[in-house]
């Protein structure tokens, strides 16, 4: 008996995926839950485990093919044990509902009120369109040419479908998207150059990163405020407690725990930076899900430390270390990357002196961390050498005022320069 | 007996409503005052006229087009009696079909004239004067429409006829005078023209097919004139003298002026239809009518009296069988607590002449008047391979779409099978589709429908075969 391998549900808003790679060939023996095939989605790469043990019988969706949720990827022929189940096909006898049976109308019929029951007006969004394939051809073309995902456009057509007009309006709303379509045609290269070019298909993750970064730039009134922080205190504390911390918590004491704590304290004081815009409303989030940008081979992912305000520094460090490990292995789930309210991006680990991070939409703030280096600074009239780091806070000026942004960054700086403030909640 | 739903009238609106109600589990009955079910459409309207249009078209083709295709036949002879019984067989078959569907769906039928005597009571008076009271939690009025009469002209259905009489003339009139250049006048005028009558159409307005797209109407008029139908536009018939052997119709310019007399063997009065509400007891039941005598309804087809609904020709909107059918389905669904709905912006309209004329949505005139910026794509059947090879190249397809969003706003077709081809335009409009959506949808070759695709391409000025 063959068992179908299907595309699993990959989280909200994910409707399709691209086959990355099959790990098995038809004919290979597979164990239950053994990874069979890698799927790339907008957000993550996931592995589809074997639903049962047996032999991989057939691969229907080939490498590179785009598949929708629930689509059949292939099938597994179950082993000898499985083949024993030779019972007759399940009797899937559907019992028709009484309401649909005119011959059952006398007693079973739902009585109809004399004054007819209030008639429900048609509610707009009864159905959501399930897949991209459900889009009209003009919408598909515009989506492909402009890079605007039809799934992200709200539709005015029947049952909420996206019309060509909706797409044109959406493209117009993001003018630079329209002007610089992500799939713009490239002028052909001279022949001897062309032979030395390599053309690689963008992964879905890469495409999504590209689109989301550009969307953020098109949407937010983004600007960056800078400051510098003297890392002496944090570094001293770290040197002092490194071993004890690792011994007790089984994880190295890094900088991220301090930064996350310092940020949360600052966000609590300046809530606009932890808020987002929804239409004409501002949504202030009284929870602190801190995204931590992690570079991987395939691109940037931002797992989220949820409710970081309720965690100890040790818990935060543990969570981030785990994220980093799993991000490298492509094992992060979509749920782990959703719902962040503020983001930390550490370019310092690659040696960056200064940068202006791009917001992780729809968030309103992102902190850029940079390299720590010893610099001469003036303290009380004396030039002293201190381990300094530049900090950059990019924010959405639509929602965060300059005073708020600067205050927020100064609070972060203060918390790091004097960690006692973090403990004392000052 | 007490029912969840009682429908008065079994035309397309009424019988479809009853079937849908029964499907949804409502205990349903219908009331019909005529001998057979099906209303005007099945008995004396759409269906019999299509039988005659079909037969008379073949008669004409046999006479004029067969030889050119290499089919040698002697001049065809008309057996009108047989043609009328061919028509009647078609009608009987359709009418029996409704009967069967009622039985299949366990719908009780009452033959007699229904009169609403209370918000939940209908009195049915049968032919022999017996009265029976039917109780209903919900009443749907689907009594349809009747021929509009013309002041000073009495219809005897022999020489001065309505559409009803024009379907049963016992001989081909020498001269047929049609009053009204609307759908009914032009369809029935075409039938008798093909069978040998000299047909003249008098229309009050200065154009034929009022309400249809002007460009389509002009081309259609030229085609009909080529077929031998003559038109007298901007004129009105004020009286018909029936004293002599030949009818004498007084015709004067609509704007006023000198009257003239036109001779005719038969005068067909086809100036429209009026809602039929007579004897329904609406006044006593307190059901309001609008200024044009139509039953007033809200967005959910309910009259001002709770539990009494109305659909079809008896309410606002185009008097079209399919509009009534969709309303029948919608009201049954609403009564059953579901989300019934009719999209009045996407109701097709077809004239079953040869060639056919079909339209859906807005005309160019309407768009201009509303100040809507639009683009038009047109494609003639002379450039369509299938039409060419069949030598049926009259007509064209016109697609009007929004200048900015490309949303299809109206589609107008004159050509063979236009009535069938309009459906893809209607579906496109139902889904708020664009002309590009039609253009990017694969159409089979070789078919006439490729002209629709080409017209859609034409909106973007990129038709292939032009």
Would you write up a description of this structure?
The complex is a heterodimer of chains A (426) and B (466). Chain A is an alpha+beta fold and 426 residues long. Chain A has twelve helices and 19 strands. Chain B is of the alpha/beta class and 466 residues long. In chain B, strands 1, 2, 3, 4, 5, 6 and 17 form a seven-stranded mixed sheet that branches. In chain B, a hairpin with a 2-residue loop joins β4 and β5. Classes of the chains: A alpha+beta (426), B alpha/beta (466). At the A-B interface, α2, α3 and α4 of A face loops of B.
Descriptive tags:
heterodimer, A: 426 residues, alpha+beta, 7-stranded mixed beta sheet, 4-stranded antiparallel beta sheet, 24% strand, globular, B: 466 residues, alpha/beta, 5-stranded parallel beta sheet, 22 strands
Question: Secondary-structure map with pairings?
Answer:
The complex is a heterodimer of chains A (426) and B (466).
Chain A: E1 2-6, E2 16-22, E3 29-30, E4 35-40, E5 45-49, E6 54-59, E7 66-68, E8 72-78, H1 80-83, H2 105-108, H3 137-146, H4 164-173, H5 175-179, H6 191-194, H7 204-219, E9 222-230, H8 232-249, H9 256-269, E10 275-278, E11 281-284, E12 290-292, E13 294-296, E14 299-301, E15 304-305, H10 313-328, E16 342-346, E17 365-369, E18 373-379, E19 382-396, H11 402-417, H12 420-424
Parallel strand pairs in A: 12-16, 16-17
Antiparallel strand pairs in A: 1-8, 2-4, 2-7, 3-6, 4-5, 6-8, 9-19, 10-11, 12-15, 13-14, 17-19, 18-19
Chain B: E1 2-8, H1 12-23, E2 28-32, H2 39-44, H3 46-64, H4 80-104, E3 108-111, E4 113-118, E5 121-125, E6 131-141, E7 145-147, E8 160-161, H5 163-166, E9 175-179, H6 183-194, E10 198-202, H7 214-226, E11 229-232, E12 235-241, E13 247-253, E14 260-264, E15 266-269, E16 273-275, H8 282-285, E17 308-310, H9 321-335, E18 349-351, E19 356-361, H10 364-370, E20 374-380, H11 385-390, E21 396-402, E22 408-415, H12 418-430, H13 435-439, H14 450-459
Parallel strand pairs in B: 1-2, 1-6, 2-3, 6-17, 8-15, 9-10, 9-15, 10-11
Antiparallel strand pairs in B: 4-5, 5-6, 7-16, 12-13, 13-14, 18-19, 19-22, 20-21, 21-22
